[in-house]
Amino acid sequence: MPVGLFRVCLLVITAIVNHPLFFPKENGTVPENTEEIIQKMKEREESLRLEQLRLEQEIADQEATQKALEKAAVVVEESKEEKVRWDMWTALSMVIFLLIELWRQDFQEGNWQDIGGEEDDMAVLGKAFKGVAFPDKAVLASFYEKRILGTTGDMARMREMVEGFADDLLEALRSVCNRDADMEVEDCMGVGSMYENWRVRKPFVCDLIVPFAPPEPYCFRCQAWCSGDSFPPDEQGYGTIKVCRADEDATGCICDKTKLGEDMLCLLHSHVSSARPSGEMEDLLCFKNTQYLDANQVMKWFQIAVTKAWNRISHKYEFDLSFSLLDSPGALKIKFKSGKSIAFNLTPVVQYENSDVYFISHFPRSSVAADIPSSTRWFLTFAVYERRFIQLVSKTLPANACHVSCLQILSFLHGKQCSLTGPSGLTNYHLKTVLLHLLQARPSQDWAPEKLEARLQDMLKFLEKCLHEKKLYHFFIGNGKVPAELGFPIIFQRAEPLNLFRPFVLRRDIYRKMVDTFHEMLRNMSALINEYTVNIPLAHTNGIRKEPL
Fold this sequence. Notes:
549 residues; alpha+beta; Beta Polymerase, domain 2; ten-stranded mixed beta sheet; 16 helices; 10 strands; elongated
């Protein structure tokens, strides 16, 4: 009962407290605040929407950045892999280069020339000889006797006459020159085929070189292409000649290059011994505004000096002397009243240091050198050492050895072929270089006179190999096996081998002409030789072998 009464009282009190009349003001403002609340809710909703858009944009930017980073990482990884592959190829290329360099050094030390009787190597050659009939020993011997031996006596008499006249002419040249200003001319020397006894084709021409030196107090300082300074590949075999005072070093004193004050004096050079001005350097035959000897100036001076010398001694002789070729300034011709004539070349040269290597102003008949790149570039000739080498080797060969005969026959065939089809890039100097290589490679007994046929075949096969490879190396340059008795300068033995066929690598027309001339010579060989062996007994002619080489 009390509990029920208590619940009724509590209910009544609660109803009274919550009656609306007790809160008239609050209940009256509810309708007014509803719109404000709704507006605030809309503003809040808009701000939340903008914040959501901003967050979505940030998320999109982060995703784009992440993708860019992933792509960059992929590119970096690929570049690393590419670099690894490139480093591997670089290392492999370096290994290959080192192997080639090691092989080249061995090649340069003499292996490139060591064909020393390798019959297997010779056997793989001779493709151009297929079907070519080669004359036998009897035909070659008859040809040599009738065509070659008859000219030996004529060459000896001509050499003697030309040398005597050249000595007289040079003596007169010294007398007309100013000893204080002009170049000093030394005695001449005979070089080339006439003095190595293998020239066969007429007209016979003697080649004489004349060393000369500058007047005191000047001297020549020679620099070869292999002395250290860089020379272009097309100038291998050339060098420069600098005209210096004897009391200055190769680079010259600083007083030659700077203006000292009027009150200043060089401690090395007095006023009297100061360097000559440019005009006087040109008097020393130097290229304009340089100290380098000019080949064109030298040849002009030499022609004028020879003309003056001949005018002084012409009354002593019953013949005329003239310059025979415009493109060869040293080419002279003696004309007798009978109509006969004798041609010879008198070429000024400069000695390289204390050796018998010479800088030559030009090559008569362009026998060896290609187009000279500059008049201050002088070609080096080793003709004196070539002559000495042949003489030295000849002392070790059997009596009547066939080495000179081989070169004479080959030179004759080549000359005959050129008269039929025109000149080619192949010269007699190339043929002599082939012989020099074989003389060094083969033992002495292989050059016995009865082996003429075999050695002639070796020369032709060696030449064919060189033509095929476009490589015929100079005999002395880069050859470490040159006999010590010759006293050959070591600087040229250590130099890189000089390829005499290098000019033909880029000039394909000349190379093609050279190869065609060689093949034509092989095909016409028997016919050319048989022209001079018509009187051989029938038994011998029937014995000519028709087997290819």
